[in-house]
Each structure stands twice: as C-alpha cells, then as structure tokens.
Design a protein that fits this description.
Order of helices and strands: HHHEEHHHEEEHHHEEHE
Radius of gyration: 23 Å
Shape: globular
CATH topology of one domain: Tetrahydropterin Synthase, Chain A
CATH class of one domain: Alpha Beta
Helix content: 40-55%
Number of helices: 10
CATH superfamily of one domain: Elongation factor Ts, dimerisation domain
CATH architecture of one domain: 2-Layer Sandwich
Strand content: 15-25%
Structural class: alpha+beta
C-alpha cells in the first residue's frame, strides 16, 4: 500500500512522533493507520497515542460572539485540574475565535495546538462539538464554570428574549426545539419501558395503548424547548413567551 505524505502527517499529529518514525511505522504496518500506532506504542515512541481512547469527561465550553453570529466549542480533557487551568481555557478561546473569524471551519477536528498541549500535560484532549450560530437576533448564555453554553437564534423577538431562552435551555437541557423532532428511535426505546411497566401493573389491554399515547405526548413535550415551562415564569411555556417569534437555531453544549 502506497504511503503518502498526508498519511505521515496525520500519524505525526496523532502521536507526536517524528515524521521519520511515523514513515517507518506506516511502512512496517503496510500503510494501516491503527497498526502504525501499535508499532509506535510497542517501541515506546508514541507519546500521545497511549492517551487516545482515554475518557474525556471534563473540559470547557467556549463561546465567542460578533455581530450576527456566535461560535461555540466544546473542548474535552480527562481531569478537572486541567480543565480549570488558564492555559487550557485560553487554548479553547483561541480556537473558538478562529471559528468565529472563519479561519477554521466547523468541520475541523484536528488542531496542532491541541496535540502540543496533549504532549505537555499528558492527557487525552479532543474537540467534542463545534457550532456556528447565525442570525439577526441571537442570545447567548455561558455558565460561570464554563461547563454549559447555549446559543439561540430568533426570527423576530428581542436579544433579551433570546438570552432568557438560552438561560432556560441551559437549566432544562431540552433535546430538540419542537416535539415532532424527538427521534423516533428514542421514543421507541421509551415505549418498550412503558409497555413493561404497564404489563407489570396489570393494566387492561384495552387501555394500554391510550396510556402509551399519553406518555409519548408527554415525553416529546418534556424534551422539546417550545413546550417546556419557562423557568422564570412557569405559568407560561417557551412557545407562549415567544409571542409569535420563532426559534431558528438552538445549540446547547454541556460537559
């Protein structure tokens, strides 16, 4: 199998090993990327490869805003100690700024500065999510610990309204905007649980389906932003406080 310079660069970015060592490892593994990582690990040369696959349950959410758009990044690491460091936070903010100014795309997942920092701190660090939210009316909320970030783009309404909805979404963690957007796969899984519960309760077969319909409606609404009771005024739903405005885009990242 032919080995290209791009293959060598990719292995270099992943492992932090020299280009020469990466070329030799790929040749030894007949061009197989994962096999080349194993070769380097066995030789004790891969510094970052050993960290690949480690759980990244900590991190920060970075948000940068400009007129008409907001960039968001979820940067993950292994420990809270690293996530709270100024250097880690600055790296996240610097990458988010690049997303905002368009110098990198939302599809980008490989950043040289992340690879360098992995080698420095000895942890697995990776990009969890990236988003770019655009619109004339945008509201942003970032939690004080930088573990949750939300951006809401409205058609109509005000910036204050968008900010209120963003804060609400941070607290309630809706999955989707409207009930019909809840994934059928998720609903089907819940229906299996409900069916088992109703069977164990001895509910008559003729009313089970009616109960299931009601449970599905409630489940969809509980997970849909529009149907949730507004945290600042529980007597009203988000749909009601919108007062004719529409949610064009909704992004919530959480660590």
């Amino acid at each position: 199998m032919a080995i290209t310079i791009d293959d060598i660069k990719k292995l270099r970015e992943t492992t932090g090993v020299s280009m020469t060592a990466c070329k030799k490892a790929l040749e030894e593994a007949n061009g197989d990327f994962d096999g080349a990582i194993d070769v380097l690990r066995k030789k004790g040369e891969a510094k970052a490869a050993d960290r690949i696959g480690r759980s990244t349950t900590q991190g920060v959410v970075s948000v940068k805003a400009a007129v008409g758009k907001v960039a968001m990044l979820q940067l993950e690491c292994e420990t809270d100690f690293v996530s709270r460091s100024d250097e880690f936070t600055k790296m996240a903010d610097d990458i988010t700024a690049k997303i905002l100014d368009g110098s990198v795309s939302v599809e980008t997942r490989e950043f040289p500065e992340i690879k360098d920092y992995m080698l420095k701190v000895g942890e697995n660090i990776k990009v969890g999510n990236i988003a770019l939210v655009e619109g004339s009316t945008i509201g942003v909320y970032i939690h004080s610990n930088k573990k949750i970030g939300v951006a809401i783009s409205l058609e109509g309404g005000t910036e204050d309204l968008a900010k209120d909805i963003a804060m609400h979404a941070a607290a309630t963690n809706p999955r989707v905007i409207s009930p019909d957007e809840v994934a059928q796969e998720l609903v089907d899984k819940e229906r299996e649980i409900w069916a088992d519960q109703l069977k164990s309760e001895g509910k008559p077969a003729e009313i089970v389906e009616k109960i299931m319909i009601g449970k599905e409606k409630k489940f969809r609404e509980e997970n849909a932003l529009l149907k949730q009771a507004f945290v600042k005024d529980p007597e009203k739903t988000i749909e009601q406080i919108l007062n004719g405005a529409k949610i064009k885009q909704f992004v919530r990242f959480g660590i």
